[in-house]
Amino acid sequence: MASRISSCDVSSLVYTLLLLFLLTIPNATNGFKLKLIPRTEIDSFLFPKNLSLLETHKRLVQLTRTRSLSFNQITPENLKPRVTNVLTSVYVVQMLIGTDPSFSTFLLMDSGSDDTWIQCDGCVNCFPLGGGSFKYRASKTYKAVSCNHPLCIPKLCSPQGLCLYSIRYGYNAFSGGIVSAENFTFPDTVEDSISFQNVVFGCGFDNQNIQFGAPLGEHNFIAGIIGLGAGSRSILSQLSASTNLRFSYCFTPYSSPAPYSYLWFGEDARINGDFKTTPLVERGIPRYYVNLKKISLNDIELPIDPLLFALRDDLSGGFAFDTGSGQTTLVNSAYQVLKLFVDSHFSEFGMDPITDRELPYDLCYHVPSAGKEYSRPSMTYHFDGDGADLVVDGSQVFQDFDDIFCLIVLPRSNDEGPSLLGSYQMVGYRFLTDVRQKTISFVPEMCSNA
Ligand SMILES: *[C@@H]1O[C@H](CO)[C@@H](O)[C@H](O)[C@H]1NC(C)=O
Ligand SMILES: *[C@@H]1O[C@H](CO)[C@@H](O)[C@H](O)[C@H]1NC(C)=O
User: Whole-prediction pTM value?
Assistant: First the structure.
């Protein structure tokens, strides 16, 4: 071959190399995005448009609290007060399930669990759902999953050999039914949607005490939960050919109306620049736990025992990234130290906490009159890993409500944990979660709807 090289061959060689190069470029379709819709924008019953920002936050605090409480290990003491709230989230995902006809609905986005389930038509115990439940019998692509399917975990079998599921949440909430496979479609814009065949999910026929964070009754529009945890049954793992077990996100600063965000998967999940990386702590729980060594306020290291953030042998404690939470939630002893130091920071400017008003947050101040000098401290989370410090700007630590502002970190009632980093404190960074590498990376970035 070499003896026959001519200028023509050289150009065809270049052409061949170019073609080879193009062929090895990662397939642009091997990735996708899920639109995260803030509940404040779509849940017109819980969040009517005429709510004040303070009232909106009252309800958001309730959602985040309910969510973090549902992560507790449930002991009889925890059942007081007996409210029938279940897992919730400040974000929902729109989806279509089935084919000819497909059923359009919303699912709660949950990065803290693996389970995806949807209430199915014909349920024995049902929660109210505007628009009705998924009419699986009408869909041309519905299949019940047999007991020997690899995703039939645990092997819970019907006498007919079908795979069953049964999930118990806190507060006596329960969902059970038939493990099934369907066509899932995630729309973004009208022209832009992506479909996946044979996605395994729970078709829920027995749903007891299910309320997605608030008693909505007939105004409920959420049909179930989409699990984006790290376990084998999660959507992340099932669609691993497209997700490559990685996703990235970048939340935009709060505004009204609240902006959409996206979860980017697979080749679309990117991080650039001088990013920092911290290892995921794996203990067989689908939640994204990391090692938090300490917290600083401005440059002052807070005297918090790091053991308060450690994931213990009985799986209590721990510190996790939780996009389904809005506010960050800290175990009580850690929160009290933070509160003390925030308070002493503002007392240096002669500012006292507001005590004579009922507010959704525990520590609030009057905004000083114009011209009076003061500053709002940043908060830094020091994670395991080289320089893995997440500096949260004061504008993401405090929220203004007209003439007052509040620390938007929530305390847990005890030290059981987990502590959760919520999405409102993730603003100003892009994050990449890589389950295969077992890492979370982050880099400062101000995103505009990306
Ligand atoms: C908001 O509007 C609803 C009717 O849409 C009304 O019932 C309610 O009182 C209003 N709330 C406020 C705070 O204005
Ligand atoms: C999956 O559902 C979408 C939306 O209804 C539809 O466009 C698509 O044809 C379906 N795919 C299959 C294989 O049935």
Answer: 0.88
